[in-house]
Amino acid sequence: MRLRAAGRAEPEDVWLRYADPRRWPGWSPQIRAVHADRERLSAGMSGEVVSVFGVTAVFVVESVDDARWHWVWRVAVGPVRLRLSHRVLRRPGGSATELVVEGPAVALAAYAAPARWALGRLVRG
């Protein structure tokens, strides 16, 4: 599944919203809290994302490219495994973000609407 959102936020600001997991609940309304072993997004970082519904997902960050504003992580909720690839792009008047999610079709269908909402908030100026 590939999702994209565009907005007025500067791409550097969008990247900083990704790079600090403590900020994720501010733009991703389905996230209540993030508990990570590091304060800044980096390869090998691991932790848990707690949803507003109390569901906890464990994660490991696979790669981070600060220069290209791109990062990839693996997330598990019980037996469901997802691989998410995020990218921030510069565009006239602001930025865009792209998310590619790999996983079971049922999980992708359930995740699509909240992910679209969060991405729109991420790039909002």
UniProtKB/TrEMBL annotation:
It comes from the Bacteria. InterPro entries: Polyketide_cyclase/dehydratase (IPR019587), START-like_dom_sf (IPR023393). Pfam families: Polyketide_cyc2. This is Polyketide cyclase/dehydrase. The lineage of its organism: Bacteria, Bacillati, Actinomycetota, Actinomycetes, Kitasatosporales.
